[in-house]
Amino acid sequence: MAAAPAAGASPAPAAPKSPQSPTSPKRRRSVTGTRKTVVVLFLLPALVLLGALVVYPIGYSLIRSFYDQSGDGFAGFDNYQALFTDDGIRTALKNNIIWVVFAPTVATALGLIFAVLTERVRWGTAFKLVVFMPMAISMLAAGIIFRLVYDQDPDKGVANAVWVGVHDTFAESSAFPKAHPGRESPLEPAGGGAFITKEPVTAGETVVLPLVGVAPDVMPDGAKKAVSADPEDGRITGTTWQDFTRGKGVGKLNGVDAAELGYAGMRIEAVKDGKVVAKTTAAGDGTFTLPAVAEGAQLRLPADNFKEPYNGLNWLGPSLVTPAVIGSYVWMWAGFAMVLIAAGLAGVPRELLEAARVDGAGEWQVFRRVTVPLLAPVLAVVVVTLMINVLKVFDLVFIIAPGSSQDDANVLALELYRKGFATDQPGIASAIAVFLLLLVIPVMWFNVRRLRREVRR
Q1: Interatomic CA distance for residues 65 and 71, integer angstroms
Q2: Pairing outcome for strands 236-242 and 206-211
Q3: Is pLDDT at 189 greater than 60 in this prediction?
Q4: Which of 98, 360, 368, 376 sits at a 20 to 30 Å CA gap from 109?
Q5: Is 279 found in the same domain as 196?
C-alpha cells in the first residue's frame, strides 16, 4: 500500500500529457494548417485544365493511333509500322536526331563561352542583354527574319552578302559574265566558255575583238570610250570593246564608235598549236598589244573573262537547309543558355578558382578542370531543357525552309502537322504524336531523377 505524503509537503507535479499518438482517430491538419478539402478545392481548376489539355489529348491520340484514316476501322500497329517505312517520316526522324545532337550542344557551348568571357568585363551586362534579346522574339518572327537572312540574292540576304564579300576578297570575279560575240564577229566559241579568233593574226596589223551582251550601265568603273588601236611594226595590236550603241540604227557593226566602251581588264591570250605563247590585258579603252612571238597565233579570250559572278551558297538548298535552320535556333536560345549558366557561375566559390590559380593552373586548366565540373548540374539543366524543346521544334522549319527543300528539312513535329492536315492521315499523325511523347519521356525521367538528387543534397 502506498504511503501517504508527509504533512506539509508540497504535492508532486502532475505528469505531462503525452502527445497525441499518430494512430489517434482524431484528424490532423496539414503543416500549413489548411484542411485537405480546401486544398482540393483550390487545386480542382488546375486539375480540370490539366486533364482537359494534357491527359485527354494524350489518351485520345493513343487510341486514335490504332485506327485507320476514317477512324472507324481498327488498324492495329499499321500506323506505327509506317513510322519506319514512310520516307518522309524516316527523313524527319533522321533530322530530329541531328537536331537533338547538335542544337542543344552548340547553344549550351556558346552560352558557356559567353557567360565565362563576359564575367570580368564592364560591358558584360550589356552584351548579355543583346545576346538574350532574341528570346523576346517569337519563333514566327525569327523564322521570317532568317528567311530573309538566308536569301540567295547577296543584295537581299545578309548571309550571302557576307559570304560573297569574303570570297571576292580572295578570288576576283568577272566583270563580263554575259559578254559574247555578236553577228558576223571574227570570234567563235572555243569550248568551256572561251572565244577565239577564226583566223590567225599577223604582226603589224590591228585586230578587232567585238563583244556584246553587257549593258553600258554595268560596265566596269575603269572602262573608257573605246578607240581603234594603231598598228605597230613587229607587234600585234587590237581593241576589244562593247560593240553596242544606244539608239536604233546608230553605230557600225564590228567597228569602234565614239559612244562605245572598251572592255577594261579583258584578258587576251595568243594560242599557237594549243599552247599559250603570249598574253596581255586590255587597257581602259580596250586596246591591247602583243609581242612578235604571237605572229601566226589565234587570239583567245579565256573563259575566266565570262564566268558568272560568285553568288554565294544556297543556304536553303537540300544540303544546307537543316544546318541553316539549326543556326537560327542557336541564335535564339544561346542567350537562354548564357543566362542560366551565368547564374550558376555566380554561385561558384571563388576561393576554389583562386586556389587553382595559386597552384599554378592556367586559365584554360581552371576552366576545364574546375569551372566546368562545378557547373555540371547547371549545364545538365540547360541541355535537358533544350533537348525537350528541340524535339518539339516546328515553327522555324515550317517558315524558313522553302517548299522545294521542306522535305529535306522535315522534322517529326512538322511531319505530324503535314500528315494530320495536309494529307488527312490522322491515324499516322497520332502515332507520330505518341512516338514523340515516348522520345520525351526518357529525357523527362532523367530530369526528374536529377532534381530529386539535388533535393537530397
Answers
A1: 9
A2: parallel
A3: yes
A4: 360
A5: yes
Nearest of 165, 156, 105, 146 to residue 321 by alpha carbon: 146
Helix (H) or strand (E) holding 398: helix 395-400
Q: Where in the sequence is the domain holding 279, given as residue range(s)?
A: 187-305
Which of helix, strand or coil describes residue 197?
Answer: strand
Q: What is the pLDDT of residues 163-173, one digit of tens each?
A: 988 887 777 66
Give per-residue pLDDT as tens, 316-367: 999 999 999 999 999 999 999 999 999 999 888 888 888 988 888 888 898 8
The angle at the Cα of 126, spanning 125 to 132, to the nearest 5 degrees, equals 85
Number of separate domains in the chain = 2
Last-in-domain residue among 284, 305, 326: 305
All three cell numbers of 412, joined, read: 517529326
* Residue in 386, 393, 406 with CA at minimum distance from that of residue 436: 393
Helix or strand holding residue 78 (H, E): helix 78-85
CA Rg value for the chain: 39
Domain boundary at 258, 274, 305, which? 305
DSSP state of 408: T
Rounded distance, CA 309 to CA 218, Å? 13
Secondary structure class of 152 (helix, strand, coil): coil
